[in-house]
Amino acid sequence: MKQMTRVAAQDVETSTAEGPKQSTEAAIELGKEALRLGKRWRRQALPLAGIGATHAIGATASALSGPAALVPVAAGWAASAGAYGYVHQRASRWNRVYAGTAAVSSAGWQAALALDGSAGIAASLLWASGAALSIPWWVRHTEPEPDITAEKTSPAAHMALPAVTSGPDPRIERWDTYIGATGKALPGSNLKQVSELPFGWRGVVELNIGEHWHSIMKAQQTILSVYDLPDGRVFVEAIPGASVRTAQITVLTRDPLQAVVRWEKPQLDPATGTFPLMTTADGEMLHYRFWWPGGGATHGLVSGVNGSGKTKVLDLILTEAAASDRVYPLIVDGGEGASLPHWRDRVKLFAETPQDARKLLRYALRLMDRRRKVVKRQGGGSVEPSPDMPLIAIVMDEAHKLLMNDEDTGTDNGDVRRMCEKLAQEGRKYGIALVLATQVPSAKQLGGSTVLRDQLKGGTVVGLRVTERTSGNMISSGAPMPEGLHELPAVFPDGKPTRGLGYMLTERMMRARSLLIENPERQSITATRLDTDCASEAVPTMTGDSEDLFVDEQVSPREAESSSDDASEQLIEEAIEAGTHADPLSLMQATGLSLSQVRRALAKHGK
Ligand SMILES: Nc1ncnc2c1ncn2[C@@H]1O[C@H](COP(=O)(O)OP(=O)(O)OP(=O)(O)O)[C@@H](O)[C@H]1O
Question: Is 312 flagged in the annotation as binding?
Fold first, then answer.
């Protein structure tokens, strides 16, 4: 009996101790549930919060009298304007319009309640009209109730997957409903590993077996529509080393490229041969490469229509080159001295006429010959740029004008093409790099030279905005492009021009913008010397004379041919005097002239 009494007493003790414990647990559960519901429905509750705040401001103002009543209304109006300003900066067009309407309505109701009192019919009307205005918001933000059964019934699973505690990610839900569901753009696909970025979010998309990630790129427009975004905000990229069924998707809810990023100081890293040139939409720096350590020089191509910012890109490349003691820049200004005038007195050779351009290229070929001997002496390999043997960078703006034949005047620029081809093909080993700027990144603008196209594609290729779709676009690595360069907008949504906006041919196929250098002429220059072999080569004089090899409009084709022949003859004479064998092949190589030009010049020379 005693024992029974003890057990009963123990039961009472346990139940009295467990009572508060259970109620605490219940309170915690209730709190959690309230928190979950709050988080889950916070977007839907936003209009109610707005109506409540409007009512409170109106009620406070109506309870006060005299000028004091203006204070809550003024504060309320400022809050409405502030709320709209916040949304205007960040949200989509629909949200901006909605926020504007809501802010104006709220301000109006605050004043109405302040005048009419908050207890009368005005307050009921406020709630009724507020609810009516909320309907479009609720319709637009309808989301299916997440399935939290697993979360509730299996606390262990809930702990193992912390992401589930705040309910399913709405971005994943949208994907599943509008993209991954049967009959949608990518049936059976999954969005996983969603993480936040400063300007949006990123995730991994996994497709059904048998699918390739290129199909995600084809669904880009659907993805933009599902997430309510303007063009150019979704980027799909392969994941190196991962299955072709998966890809990384970057979604930008804001466009960071709207902000101009300024170049600050020279950053050419001698250890890598690179410097930062562009920043991607997700904040990564893309680098221009002058050389590969141990692998020789690399070439570059910058393309874009007038005003796209390509000369500024060349300015940046030249500034980095001029500031380094390992790069010796030479400039050909195909814009007849008007494209890069501020560099005229800042580099050793600046060619602004087609004739001077030819002289400069022949000089570069002679330097290459001299370096050939140096490389032979060092037992092969390639020239590693150093202060004693700098990289020779030949930068040609408006290169298409010198590389394409001019059908109007009948000018054949085959000699310029051949010289550039030779420099592009052989320059790598000898530390000679070509940096060309054209209006379109196509072989056509390179005078149809597939040799130049292939060599340049192996280096840094920057494609800024173009106006028309082009065939043979060089900004392509085999995978489909997120968009054509002709699809890049001319202005950002805020109306500012998109200068410097484009793509760099790297594994990051994402919109990028070049760093802006404001005053390249104010940047310091490092005196760089050529190696002794090259330094002993006679430097041609740039006359700025535009006659001679270039046919101008007033000259008849016959006169043009004879003037061209005179120039060829002069070149041949110079080459023979410099020790070149007088056979056509050697002379073609040394001068960059065509076989017929060499033959004609030799015939005249020998007369
Ligand atoms: N990355 C950039 N960010 C912001 N503004 C830029 C950028 N690049 C260029 N700009 C602006 O655009 C203007 C035109 O650039 P730039 O002269 O390089 O164009 P372009 O393509 O070379 O045109 P053109 O062939 O007519 O000379 C510059 O003066 C500069 O103000």
Answer: no
